[in-house]
Amino acid sequence: MHDILPEDARWYLHVRSRMQETIEGHGFGRIDTPLLEDEQVFTKGVGAATDIIEKELYTLRTKGGDKLALRPEGTAPIVRAYLQHGMKTLTQPVRLYYDGQMFRHERPQKGRYRQMWQMGIEILGEKDAVSDAEAILVTMNALKEAGLKNLSLQINSIGSRESRLGYVKALKNFLRKRHGELAPADKKRLTSNPLRVLDSKDERTQRALSDAPEILDYLNESDRIHLRSVLEYLEELDIPYLVNPRLVRGLDYYSRTVFEVWPEPQEGETLSAQAALAAGGRYDDLFRLLGSKAIGAVGSAIGIDRVVTALKEQEPDFITYEAPQIFLAQLGEQAKKKALPLYDELRSAGYSIRGSFGRSSIKSQLRIADKVGAPYVIILGQKEVADNTVIIRSMKRGTQNTVKRDVLIRELGRRMKRRQKAKKKK
Predict the structure, then answer these.
(1) Integer Cα distance of 257 and 299 in angstroms
(2) When you count CB atoms within 10 A of the terminal residue's CB, does the N or C end of the chain come out lower?
């Protein structure tokens, strides 16, 4: 787990605010679920044989004996909330989004932490393929509005339960013949969750899978039509895509459409196995796993930590430090008492402002003003308090003028406009 320090917080706030604005612009309403849920929301919904449940779930038992878990992902809690609050009586589909922290006890690596930030969207109550395309569109738009360029979309269909029965049987038969070539963890998956072998990051397993059967060959007619419809919608939207028959998601609740959004690799660059910025798919069966009848739903989750990392690498100067417009310096006890109300007045007038009220030396305060890059310093001393005036000092020119307190805001506005005009000319 990690701290987000002020210099990084600017990146996180930018990404999250731009994505939120984009997602809300598509008609999604915000939902916040608890960080702690009943453990069964995940063991039943996500799947007991998945990596999330077997290796990554943080669990605890309360004094009353309840088994709880820190949420590792956002979709299962939202489906729980949809069912619990009777949202099926609302106009369908229900469009929801979330923005919060998830927890997984996994191996930390670049852009991946045990406490991570995710923003996700869910479209609940719609089985039509158009919702799959809508989820992809909103996800891509959110990433683009955050500032990312050159994104690539990978998509696949893992079919309905009926289609997967035949495919899983063929895949098991194939993998049994290659059993000795698989990584130890993938040998275990062969009996518990064979589809997850396709998602293995181990090079030995990937070599063994080179001529494995593909699930697209096992889709029934209904699943084929659904996939074809999604791809046709993407073409109408001019969203390029790559059909990746090996793409599966690591959660049991997915069916039919699954997708991932990646940054395009630069020339000579290879993507790491963990470079996907966003991922999602259709999860009609999750409702059934949580005790309801199957209801159409599709969604995606965006890894904010990864987006920030990718944005920094793409454009290191995209988020720059913004110097305060004004530094407020004070000298003497009376001035110190008057400084804080003036500080708040300037802030209310719309100025970004800094001060160091605990310091008494004017020289040290001017040194701080220079360090933070404030173009103007307002100096308030004992004389100024008595005369109801302030001194405005230009840090660039080293000149200063005394102005009446009641015209300070107007005088600052005039100077800021003049400064903006000078910047435009440059």
Answers:
(1) 10
(2) C
Angle at 353 between CA 351 and CA 356, to 5 degrees: 165
Residue 93, preceding bond cis, omega within 30 degrees?
yes
* Residue 357 to residues 82, 98, 206, 335, 381, Cα–Cα distance (Å): 51, 40, 62, 10, 12
- Distance in angstroms (rounded) separating the CA atoms of residues 313 and 335: 46
**% of the chain with per-residue pLDDT over 90:** 57
User: What count of other Cβ atoms lies within 10 Å of the Cβ of residue 71?
Assistant: 25
Which pLDDT value is given to residue 113? Answer: 85
Pairwise CA distance, residues 324 & 372, whole Å: 7
CATH topology match: 6-160+220-314 vs 326-425: no
Contact by Cβ (8 Å): 289, 252: yes
Domain ranges of the chain: 6-160+220-314, 326-425
**One CATH from 3.40.630.30, 3.30.565.10, 3.20.20.30, 3.40.50.800 for 326-425:** 3.40.50.800
- Contact between residue 302 and residue 140 where contact means Cβ atoms under 8 Å apart: no
Non-local CB neighbours of 405 within 8 Å, separated by 6+ positions: 388, 389, 390
Q: Within 10 Å of residue 90's Cβ, how many Cβ atoms?
A: 12
pLDDT at 315 over 60: yes
The tokens for 86 are 């009777």
- Which residues on adjacent β-strands are paired with residue 123? 95, 298
At residue 273 the predicted structure's pLDDT band, cuts being 50, 70 and 90, is: very low
**Distance separating alpha carbons of residues 74 and 122, to the nearest angstrom:** 9
Separation CA 141–CA 97 (nearest Å): 14
Mean pLDDT of all residues in the chain? 88
Cβ neighbours for 14, distance < 8 A, ≥ 6 positions apart: 146, 147, 319
Burial of 257 (0-12, 13-18, 19+ CB in 10 A): buried
pTM value is 0.85
Residue range 340-386, pLDDT digits in tens:
999 999 999 999 999 888 888 899 999 999 999 999 999 999 999 99
Q: Which CATH number is 6-160+220-314 given?
A: 3.30.930.10
